[in-house]
Design a protein that fits this description.
heterodimer, A: about 425 residues, alpha/beta, 7-stranded mixed β-sheet, 5-stranded mixed β-sheet, 12 strands, B: about 260 residues, 8-stranded mixed β-sheet, globular
């Protein structure tokens, strides 16, 4: 039996989307730091503007450096195409705005990044889009929350900061039965740990700022289209299946089929909202992606070591990490994330908020800042920072206790990470 | 747009432009297991050149109703029936792979209806590897994988596509995987048994353009030779660094080739 021999993940992370620069032979991806691109003639210009021919017009719409990043991420995720954005939040808003209008409804996991929670809770309602939050561990709750006007089911592969593992195949079926796509923020896991489209997810997004870029240098986001959702069959997405006056009556599903969503996202959302990625940031993120497989292996092995260490310490009340057998989603994590459950973990320190504050102020190697997925170990107190806009009720619903510490385990020597945590834990109890 | 052909709904993309009966008609016919959207990088451009574009979904493909047609001859007859339903007396036909066989057969059988012919990714015969045929018969994912693996040129498999953000490998595979069970097997079987291309080429009277990929493993360019030799008024464009999925892999070069043709 013959078998195809496509380039594997590690190879795609280095090569996908790029050929050596035809003008100079440059092997690295050149930074095309330009706003605009010269047209061959007026017919060429008109055809580009009218989506008749592929090519670049203006960097707000597309750019050769950014296009390499988009193609590479689409390749790693197994999607038909991708659109890069100025940030992960821009990617989320771009997807929502492409899919729905006022009067629409979203069903979302209640355990989300604070920025996403804020967008759904406070900002989108101003534009007539409401969200119902449900327990990410309760598929039936997703089903029960879906209404006739629901246009999206949304969650994260691993909840933030509760580290719940979302049951993607089950929730995808629920969404599809209702004629609605499932969109997943896969920032915590990256396609190295799980390719979400293989589990029924229709649209994926990443904050590229995190593990994909991996070095804490550049803000960026991306939305990727699986190409598998039947927009026409659903009948709920006129932005994709009815003539669009903005392009002289173009019907995206009719003309572009499996790429309807990603085409409209670029042609309308990126153009009109303007949250494009700078080519220089695209370059920096591409440098990170080249080593994504190597970094993720080290992130995961360090996280497993650190989680085991924390679980054995008297100063620690609990540790939340899906690779620990004590985690409620351990079995699901083994099924969906066989390469590891990422490198974000949360834990509670005896002594509550004061002990937590002392711990954070006592770490030396770990950095106290508002990010995850850096090569360096990071630490934060979600209740007072990333999730501070959430009410006490919402915090409790999201499983965020006052003393919770979120740790993003980096790729330093694990002995050094543990040494730093050990001394900070000791100091946290002397208060 | 929807039409009724042989009592069933037939769907075609028009390049996003209202149809004008005074404009010359151009009909695009897709290959095995695919649909109209494989022409997405050509249809809008040709339509906005002032042409009446119909990128058809053959029966059982894309949005068109019905079972897939079992033979190249039946598909050719269907294209003419589509033209009848659309009120098109004469058209330029552009076909890819199986669609090239279909349009070649239509041009041979109905010479008075075909103004010009463009054949992409075509050879005298299209024998299908038995493993591919078996995988398609069993609706296994291996079948689309093999088609994409053999169908894309080496450059296209790594990427750097001129269409920003498009990952052509998955775009091609997803389109094939979304075809209904049995459709790909039907189409591959029709290609596998069709032996009439050379004879049909001998009967073609209209101007014909061959567009071939230099690195095409599925329909090697050199194997189009007998067809090229049989048509008196033809020209050939061979696109470098290009496999079988010519219109997806090399849209700029296809644009250059089609500009004079349409």
């Amino acid at each position: 039996m013959v078998k195809p021999n496509f380039a594997k993940f590690d190879t795609l992370a280095l090569h996908a989307g790029q050929q050596p620069d035809p003008a100079t032979g440059a092997r690295a991806v050149p930074i095309y730091q330009t706003t605009s691109f010269v047209f061959d003639d007026t017919d060429h210009a008109a055809s580009l503007y009218n989506l008749e021919r592929p090519g670049h017009i203006y960097t707000r719409l597309s750019n050769p450096t950014t296009a390499v990043l988009e193609e590479r991420v689409a390749a790693l995720e197994g999607g038909v195409g991708a659109v890069a954005t100025a940030s992960g939040m821009a990617a989320l808003f771009l997807a929502v705005a492409t899919l729905m209008d006022k009067g629409s409804h979203i069903v979302a996991s209640g355990s989300l990044y604070g920025g996403s929670h804020n967008l759904f809770t406070y900002t989108l309602p101003r534009f007539g889009i409401d969200t119902t939050f449900v327990n990410p561990r309760d598929p039936q709750a997703f089903k029960d929350a879906i209404r006739p006007e629901t246009r999206l089911v949304f969650g994260e592969t691993l909840g933030n900061p509760g580290i719940e593992v979302m049951n993607l195949p089950v929730i995808a079926r629920i969404a599809h039965d209702a004629g609605v796509p499932l969109m997943i923020d896969a920032t915590f896991t990256t396609p190295y740990l799980i390719r979400v489209f293989e589990y029924g997810v229709d649209i994926a997004m990443h904050s590229l700022t995190k593990f994909m870029g991996g070095h804490g240098t550049s803000i960026g986001g991306v939305v990727i289209d699986s190409g598998r959702f039947d927009w026409e069959g659903s009948g709920k997405f006129p932005t994709l299946t009815e003539p669009y006056a903005g392009y002289h009556g173009l019907d995206f599903a009719e003309e572009f089929g499996t790429q309807a969503f990603v085409m409209r996202a670029r042609a309308e959302g990126l153009k009109d909202f303007g949250a494009c990625l700078s080519p220089t940031n695209a370059f920096y993120i591409l440098q990170g992606i080249e080593t994504l497989p190597l970094r993720m292996q080290k992130h995961v092995s360090n996280a497993e070591t650190v989680a085991a260490f924390l679980a054995s310490q008297d100063e620690v009340e609990w540790v939340n990490y899906p690779s620990l057998t004590s985690h409620p989603d351990y079995e699901l994590a083994q099924q969906l994330l066989p390469k590891g459950a990422g490198s974000i973990l949360s834990f509670g320190i005896k002594g509550g908020r004061d002990a937590g504050r002392t711990f954070i102020e006592s770490v030396n190697l770990a950095s106290h800042l508002a990010n995850i997925g850096d090569a360096k170990t990071l630490v934060i107190h979600p209740g007072s920072t990333t999730h501070q806009q959430m009410s006490a009720t919402d915090l409790a619903a999201a499983g965020i206790g006052e003393g919770m510490i979120r740790l993003s385990v980096g790729i330093e020597d694990s002995d050094d990470i543990i040494s730093d945590l050990k001394q900070a834990l000791r100091l946290s109890q002397k208060g | 747009m929807e039409l009724t052909v042989n009592d069933l709904m037939a769907f075609a993309a028009t390049g996003g432009r209202a149809l004008n009966a005074d404009e010359p008609a151009v009909i695009f016919v897709h290959g095995a297991g695919l649909d109209r959207t494989i022409w997405q990088l050509q249809t809008r451009n040709v339509a906005h050149m002032g042409r009446r574009v119909y990128a058809v979904d053959l029966p059982g493909h894309g949005r068109s109703e019905g079972e897939p047609l079992a033979s190249i001859g039946e598909m050719a007859d269907w294209v003419i029936a589509f033209m009848d339903a659309a009120g098109v007396d004469k058209a330029k036909l552009i076909g890819h792979s199986m669609g090239a066989f279909v349009t070649l057969e239509a041009a041979a059988k109905y010479p008075h209806r075909i103004e010009k012919l463009c054949l992409m990714g075509v050879s005298e015969t299209m024998p299908v590897h038995p493993d591919l045929l078996a995988a398609a018969e069993n609706n296994q994912r291996l079948a689309p994988e093999l088609i994409v693996y053999w169908g894309l040129g080496e450059t296209a498999k790594i990427g750097g596509h001129p269409h920003p953000g498009l990952w052509i490998q998955n775009a091609s595979q997803t389109l094939l995987e979304l075809s209904a069970d049995g459709v790909l097997y039907n189409d591959l079987s029709a290609c596998n048994v069709y032996q009439g291309a050379a004879e049909a080429a001998g009967r073609v009277k209209c101007e014909t353009l061959f567009v071939l990929g230099k690195d095409d493993m599925m329909t090697p360019a050199r194997k189009a030779g007998p067809l090229i030799g049989a048509i008196s008024t033809c020209s050939t464009t061979i696109i470098d660094d290009c496999g079988h999925m010519i219109m997806s892999e090399r849209p700029h070069q296809v644009f250059q080739a089609l500009r004079g043709f349409v």
